[in-house]
Amino acid sequence: MKKLINDPRNVVAELLEGFVLANEKMVYKHPRVNAAIRRDAPVKDKVGIVIGGGAGHEPLFLEYIGRGMADASAHGQIFAAPAPVIVYEAIKAVDSGKGVLLLYNNYAGDVLNFDMAQEMAVAEGIRVETVLVNDEIASAPKGKEAERRGTTADHIIIKIAGGAAERKLPLEEVVRITRKAIAGARSLGVALSSCTLPATGREIFDLPEDKIEIGMGLHGEPGFERIDLLSADQTVDRIVPRIIEDLPYKKGDEVVLIVNGYGATTRMELLITNRRIRSLLADIGIGVHGTEIGEFCTSQEMKGLSVTLIRLDDELKGIYDMPCDSAFYKKTVF
Amino acid sequence: MKRLDLQFWSQAVGLLAGAFTENEVRLCEYDGAVGDGDHGTSMLLGFSQAQKNMAERPPADIGQVFRHMGEAFIENVGGVTGVIVGSMFAAIAESTACAQELGTDDLCRAFSAGLSAMKKRGKANEGDKSMVDALSPAVHAMSAAAEQRQTPDETLRRASQAAAGGTEATRAMEAKVGRGRYQKDKAVGHVDAGASSISLIFEVLSRAAR
Fold first, then answer.
1. Is residue A1 part of a domain?
2. Is residue A40, in this structure, part of any structural domain at all?
3. Domain for residue A3, yes or no?
4. Residues 6-35 of B with CB under 8 A from A
5. A 212-231: CB under 8 A from B
6. Cα angle, residue B117 at apex, residues B112 and B118 outer, rounded to 5°
């Protein structure tokens, strides 16, 4: 393993410290726990949005805090859910009295810890709702969507929830809109190599040099199939039709397209991939309202990429187009 | 045979931290077969933090010893391990509140409460390839020992044996809960890391009680 780190036990605290130093005007670190919080939280009359999960997937979740985005991010150790107390402190720090939305990915550890935090906050009279992101289609078959894991859709789902909250909509409306966006979100990726964990220094799965795995999870969870390395276009042909068929996305649908690098994929590869994705979508007549290309949901130095489609209706389009300002994701409107 | 008094349980925390230091790598390897390989580190973190809690706030009764362990896991460990093990210790703490010594019946009640909390929090049952598969046979063995009016040390010995057997039985199971469930049959052939940890806890307690 080659990583520029210090004591592996301190990576999360140190990355949080570095992030806060770079964004001092926007966020602060909670004095006792590994949570980053919007400096002006709680924002008057606004529903608070708390995101979070295991660390090691930067820029998620940390760098999505800001105006029109999330209010706080609760961080666990690398690939491990945050302890309940971290989430609980984040909830308390952002509640304006209008309630708090917990928005995170559907993993067993996250659900356990966030649920416990929700119970603690509700016991103190804070209104808390939970919405789980479950866009990854290789993690459970169609019909068992509730068992699916959440991945790159976060990049836009957080913006949708944050935008709805920024409009000062009540908690139940923020929940409804966020759920609608998730219901139309599907992702699938391909892994070209494993990642290593700072604590153990070992690769978390074996993937031979000439093989790729379609649907491999962010933490080495097995995917649909392990096949020989293909060209960019051939790889897209293995991924995108599965995504389209799963929802299914139909002629006339409008989507946000996300092409996400897992950590060690060049932007060149992402852009090459994007052409073929667009041609497959055009063949069916699916319109692309917005495209997001870059590293959003990473898995350390894993090589590979994922493709996400999120269907937008007029309401979601309006929120997607709103300006927002977080450390990582900014949108300006002229 | 030792009395299972406040001193016994206070010392047990240090013994557990020592045992998980020795077994950290082995438990991480078990976890690495189906998960991301950090289970041993999480367990060690929990018991090390519990030791610190004990030093900062010396316990006045056995319930407080378990409360320190519960808080350490729930507040400091995170992941699945932190909440599940922490919930077990928190339930045991409630059951042993104010106690200065545990007899066989007290042990039985306490760990039975721990098992219920673990199953409820983890939404796991026997046969799902989880910690429950070690703790459940241990609790059954304790109940049987209690009916036969066995001594506390003999009760812990039988619990330890049952937990080890239960752990071994996870080898043939498909994982139905946690991250291991995504590995489906790939997990078959490996013992569950969480069950191994529960087994190790009983092994340490049983040895200390002799």
1. no
2. yes
3. no
4. 28, 32, 35
5. 217, 219-222
6. 95
